Every structure is written in C-alpha cells, then in structure tokens.
Amino acid sequence: MKFYLLACLFLLIISTGIAQTNYDTVRITPVKITEQIYMLKGAGGNLGVMIGKEGTLLIDNQFAPLSNKINGAIKTLDPGEIRFAINTHIHGDHSGGNENFKKMGATLVAHDRVRERMSKESVNARTGAKNPPRDQNAWPLITFADKLNFHLNDEDIVLHHFDLGHTDGDVIVQFKKADVVHTGDAFVRYGYPYIDLSNGGSVNGFVSTLDKILLLIDDNTKVIPGHGEVATKADVKKLRDTIADIRDQVVAALKKGKKVEDIASLGITDKYEAELGKGFVKGKDFVLMVAENLKGKM
Question: What is the full DSSP assignment across 226-282?
Fold first, then answer.
C-alpha cells in the first residue's frame, strides 16, 4: 500500500506540477556549460539547450504553462528557431510542453515507446484508473529504437536508448565534441531515484543504464542530470554503486524468504538516508519499490 501511495504521489507531481503550481513565480535560469550548450533550470526536469547558426536543439520542456518563459529564456541565448525538441522520457515534467513547442515550429523527437505510450489510453494496473492519450500534437514526429545521430551546429549528437530504467523509453543525449551528456531521469541528484514500474521501469535496467553511461563519459565530461546540479563521472558512479548495493541486498533478502512487505524493516538504506532521503522518495519506500520490481525474477 505504501508503494502504491508513493507511485500515486509521483504521478500527481509530474502530471500537475504540484511541486510548483504558481508558474507566474517560476524563473527559467540558464547555466552555461560550454559556448554552445546550456542547462536551464525552472520547475520540472533540467532542460538542455544547444545553440548555433543552424538552429537550436532543446532537450525536454517541463510543464506546458512554462513554454513561453522557456522560449523567452532560450531567445536570450540565441534568437534562432528551435528546430528540434527531444523528450528524454514520457513524464509530464519533461514533456508537458510538447504541443506548445510543436506550434512554435520544433520537430519532436523521442524513443519509440514514448510515442506509443502517448498515443494510447493507459490503465493503472493497481486501481484500474484510465488516462486518455495525449493530444496528437504532443506525439513525437521522429522516433527511434536504440540510437539516433544528429549533426547540427558543427556538433555530433548521439541519442542513446540503453535499457528499461527510469521508464522503458529513456533517452541519453551525448554531445561528442563538447563532451557533455544529458541523462534525463536515468540519472538524478534529488536523492533516491524513482523507478516508474507502471511505465516499464526496471531496477536492473536502471543500474545497467548507469553502467553504459559510465562507458560514454570520462573524468572531464559534464553531466546534466534529469534533476539537480551539473555532475561528474564520479557522481554517476556513486549513484550506480548505491543502487546496485541496495538491489543486491533486497535480492538476498527475497532469496531468504522475506516477504516484500517486510523488506522495509531491514535497515537496508539506513547508511544512505542522510544523503539520499531528502527527496520525496525515502529509503523504506525505495526498497519496497525495488522489491516489488524484483519479486519472482530471481
């Protein structure tokens, strides 16, 4: 029941922007990464922006009411058109402005499963509640399965889909020449990550995706996370090792016959709680999420 309530809370946050409902007070703040690449902070997931003479590329777009503010902030960096708007995954705090940016002329790009999920009614497996499809103007026009290459503004950009992780449609955006990576919520810095089982997420895939991100980057790479401040390879490795440790302890407990509902009382995340328990996902909730995902799969 506690895991179910956590899932409901997360879906409420990402669908309505409950964490920041007064959009009039939201400021879109650019953080310079390179001469061409910026991270924009606002309400929702971190935005990535690449500017140049061939047009602007936007990564994620937060909530719909912020679209004009986001567009205005981008225009202060470069007045050129936004040619492409990439979704790192389906959640509304990353893709809520799709319709608006399409109307502004951007071509929407995402993983195959993002378009598939947006275009169909979804049903909550626990409650039976039905959610209608997104408006067709929100559906990505260009989709891909594993890898997609862009060549824009003298930069080689690679979109990677590695595994079922935060969701089943996660995209990592790599700027090869600039040595910058935008991870979406495949890597976050708000605390314990949320693994969205209802949208195909997987704890094993989450760790596997982090392993593959680590192979893309080095100690000089600038990592734009889905949420939080710009990071390094060491930050990615630390989260990867933490989640793998928690997973392995949950697996061991399940193999010993522990029930899912008993996992939270084992103290598995106690040593991580001071650092990671500051977000909306607490350690006990996280281990229940992991146990729910892994039960019957060993």
Answer: SSSS-B-HHHHHHHHHHHHHHHHHHHHHHHTT--GGGGGGG-TTGGGHHHHTTSSS-
Residue 208 has pLDDT above 60, yes or no: yes
SS3 65: helix
Distance CA(119)–CA(27), nearest Å, equals: 31
Q: Please give the radius of gyration of the chain, using alpha carbons only, rounded to the nearest integer.
A: 19
Q: What is the pLDDT of residue 7?
A: 54
One-letter amino acid identity for 282? K
Rounded distance, CA 108 to CA 94, Å? 13
pTM (two decimals): 0.93
Residues 223-260 as b/e (b if ≥16 CB within 10 A, e otherwise) read bbbbbbeebebebbeebbebbbebbebbbebbeeeeeb
What is the rounded distance in angstroms from the CA atom of residue 118 to the CA atom of residue 168?
Answer: 13
List, edge to edge, every strand of the sheet that includes 222-224. Answer: 147-152, 155-160, 172-175, 180-182, 222-224
The single residue listed with the structure tokens 């071509």 is: 107
- Cβ neighbour number for residue 128 with a 10 Å cutoff: 7
Residue 62 DSSP one-character state? -
Strand partners for 160: 147, 172
Mean of the pLDDT values across residues 87-114? 98
Spatial separation of the C-alpha atoms in residues 223 and 298, rounded to whole Å: 33
